[in-house]
Amino acid sequence: MSNNKDSLQVNIKQHKTVLHQPQRTLLESIEVHQIDVHFHCREGYCGACRTKLLSGKVEYPNFPLAYIDDDEILPCCCYPTTDIEIELA
Amino acid sequence: MKYTTFNQINNNPLTEPMFFGNPVNVARYDQQKHQIFEKLIEKQISFFWRPEEVDVSKDRVDFQKLSESEKHIFISNLKYQTLLDSIQGRSPNIAFLPIISIPELETWVETWSFFETIHSRSYTHILRNLFGDPSSIFNDIVENQEIKKRASDISKYYDDLIFATQLWQTLGEGSHTINGVTHIISMRELKKKLYLCMNSVNALEAIRFYVSFACTFAFAERELMEGNSKIIRLIARDENLHLTSTQHIINLWAKGKDDPEMAEIAEECKEEATQIFLNAVQQEKEWAAYLFQQGSMIGLNKEILCQYVEFIANHRMSAIGLGQPFDIKSNPLPWMNNYLNSDNVQVAPQESEISSYLVGQIDSEVNADDFGDFDL
Ligand code: FES
Ligand SMILES: [Fe+2]
Ligand SMILES: [Fe+2]
What we know:
The complex is a heterodimer.
Chain A (H helix, E strand, L loop, with lengths): L8 E4 L4 E3 L6 H6 L19 E5 L2 E2 L12 E2 L5 E2 L3 E4 L2
Parallel strand pairs in A: 1-7
Antiparallel strand pairs in A: 1-2, 3-5, 3-7, 4-6
Chain B lengths: L34 H12 L10 H9 L2 H29 L6 H29 L3 H7 L3 H27 L2 E5 L2 E5 L1 H22 L1 H12 L4 H29 L5 H9 L1 H22 L10 H18 L16 H5 L14 H4 L18
Antiparallel strand pairs in B: 1-2
Helix pairs in contact in B: 1-4, 1-9, 3-4, 3-5, 3-6, 3-8, 4-9, 6-7, 7-9, 7-10, 7-11, 7-12, 8-9, 9-10, 11-12
């Protein structure tokens, strides 16, 4: 299972680089480090967590309903599949 | 173009625009031009709830404990929400259904409106519990100047579109004089009215509700009016889907993924759309001032509520390409998120284990093996 990958790096622009936690969503991995990401639903349908993906790839086990632009991701329901670089809103 | 309830032209719905193409004929969902609306229908139906299932009886005791200024805040917000859902329970149907051209969007609008009627019914449930006879509260909605001011600003975009559509459907494009007033009806003007109306609907669901949501959840933070809070959490969950749907519609247009003329109109009307949002923000701030005119409530005041409106507006406006007009960068009411988190909809956030609080502890999770031969 690809969202099981270990030691993928999440480089958060203007913050720090953190490690993605296997089996956790990207949002949960970031919150472990006390970095605030905006959220409401945590289930992919409200768009509150919309974040810019500067490089790398993520995947969604479930089709996310919220609107996002081509260069944006929803941390609450996505899992990195490579090292990624993001910019929080 | 005259509306028909079953268009006999054998058209291909996959090539129709969302609006102002052929009227829909077969209600089929095996194929979709815009799959997102089918997904939204499924999600919304999975959210089905009944107001009567939420026990609000304890709220009656709590309500008696509130100060006069807190009662004013609580009741005024319910009045305002009643107004918003009265409008939303009918207007998407009346304004959009006659001009929609794809079945998945038609059914989404019907599903969406149906849930607004659940919201309206829940206000009666809440108010009947508090007052027995809530007539005076409902009557005041059409008397209260503060509410009426907002009502006309919200309904005017719908009313404009509905009236122009009626003229177009009966008389077609052209210049029509009715009761001495001349109306120019062109497809371009109709589409502009539709574009502005959709922005106004998005502002309504994405911003206007949040002042009253914040007050409700501030009461709940003090463990007051929790039945009401539970209902409002269910409503907020639905509203999140609704605002997502109108964001999709607006962005499908703007990105040229539907009707190319709507992409031009989006560009042309950007200023006006921005103004719709800024007006909504301004009105919500005035609403906050009205709510707190007799005194504030614990945990909330006018200033912080105004900041929260700006914070939410930045998020919502940037989602549809209108930028972030306000300076505020961090959430002034972080506890709000716990009430808007779908995991917490069925339980009180202060009773539940909130995942965002818990993730800090994942490293210390206990494994089954750690218990060794411990017998359970
Ligand atoms: S928090 Fe709602 S989409 Fe991510
Ligand atoms: Fe509603
Ligand atoms: Fe709604």
